[in-house]
Design a protein that fits this description.
- This protein is mainly beta.
- Helices cover about 5% and strands about 50% of the residues.
- The strands form seven sheets. It has a five-stranded antiparallel sheet, with helices on one face. A five-stranded mixed sheet has the order 14-21-20-16-18, with no helix packed on it. Strands 1-3-8-5 form a four-stranded antiparallel sheet, with no helix packed on it.
- The longest helix has 17 residues.
Length: about 375
């Protein structure tokens, strides 16, 4: 049975390539869901999903349907997964030598487009993963098309779709961290702050046009930078100043050329939260070497022995290190397992006040 199917696949392939005048009709085509811009830029780690649309374009009913698809060498044929389909599939088989798949629909009984246009068509949606042990070149073009066979008729070739594979999408992509900002209970008529990260996950400049708050108790004291470079982060100090003993809720809205994004903010004003004033910090942070290859040394001046938290973030805004510091000292951080790129740090006291912030580079 498998030998017969392999022979059938080869035979149909010969027919389809020999008959160059066979083109996809309006009802027999393939689509791919991923991709941005006209180039269909797609991230390397994406799982591609294809939908093959078929329609019986012949004069009589079709009882059997065969769909064949041969994939790029970068795909793992064994990872083929069915997502959704309009008609019941009898069976499918992978041909690993050709990195191809064949789907068989027996007794599908598709009416002709001339007699029943609505029921003469259907679809088959699937996903396929890239091989884990292979490197896809930057800007590699991944193409795919399919062959559709109705009964004993000649194979119909679909259109060809493509994806341009990249490690970073060449568009601005806005993200924020955290998505929810909770201040908790704070003394009324005193201002407290927390850090919000505006992250550009894309490969083009993120342009921030405006930042607004729906509740005046939350605000920015300092101006924001209008541009965030590719794969970079901007740190913003968001303040909360409660004036009444009540619960405050609001939204921080960031408008940009990548769309708008919102951060929900909450806080509560209290008459007495037993907060003890902290001696004003005169802390300074030096990093050497910068850029760093193995170990980065953070020299922190802390003459009042104020307890502090040093946090390291990657360009995605993910926390990768958290170190508590109690006195003036040098802190050595092992960066040998860090990926090459820009990293950001924040130094806060236990009240959550930002003492210092900056960035360093790992080579």
């Amino acid at each position: 049975k498998k030998t017969y199917k392999l022979f059938l696949l080869i035979l149909l392939s010969i027919f389809s390539f020999a008959l160059n005048d066979i083109q996809a009709s309006s009802g027999n085509y393939i689509t791919v869901e991923q991709g941005v811009k006209e180039e269909n830029y797609t991230l390397m780690n994406e799982v591609l999903e294809y939908t093959i649309h078929f329609q019986n374009i012949y004069d009589s009913e079709s009882s059997t349907l065969i769909i064949q698809d041969e994939f790029s060498e970068f795909f793992n044929i064994s990872s083929f997964e069915i997502v959704e389909m309009s008609h019941e599939l009898t069976e499918y088989e992978g041909f690993f030598a050709n990195n191809a798949i064949q789907m068989l629909f027996e007794n599908i009984n598709l009416p002709s487009v001339h007699s029943d246009e609505e029921n003469s068509k259907g679809f088959f949606k699937f996903r396929i993963y890239f091989k884990e042990d292979i490197t896809i070149p930057e800007n590699a073009l991944i193409e795919n098309s399919a062959r559709i066979v109705f009964d004993n008729n000649q194979a119909v070739e679909t259109n060809t779709v493509f994806n341009t594979m990249v490690s970073v999408l060449p568009i601005p992509i806005i993200s924020v961290a955290p998505a929810l900002l909770e201040f908790g209970e704070m003394q009324i008529n005193e201002a407290f702050s927390q850090i919000v990260q505006i992250i550009n996950l894309g490969g083009e400049d993120l342009i921030i046009s405006d930042i607004t708050f729906t509740n005046a108790a939350f605000f920015l004291k300092d101006s924001f930078e209008s541009e965030v470079g590719p794969q970079d982060v901007q740190f913003l100090q968001v303040w909360f100043n409660p004036s009444e003993t009540t619960t405050y809720e609001g939204t921080m809205i960031v408008k940009s050329n990548a769309g708008d994004i919102e951060i929900y903010i909450t806080g509560k004003g209290e008459m007495d939260t037993a907060i003890i004033d902290v001696i004003p910090s005169i802390n300074k942070v030096d990093i050497y070497p910068n850029p760093v290859r193995d170990f980065a040394t953070f020299t922190i001046e802390n003459p009042v022995a104020e307890k502090q938290l040093l946090t390291i973030y990657n360009t995605l805004g993910q926390q990768i290190a958290l170190i508590e510091n109690n006195v003036s000292e040098d802190i050595a951080i092992d960066c040998t397992n860090y990926q090459t790129g820009i990293y950001h740090f924040q130094l806060k006291n236990l009240m959550g006040k930002t003492i210092s912030k900056g960035k360093f580079v790992v080579q």
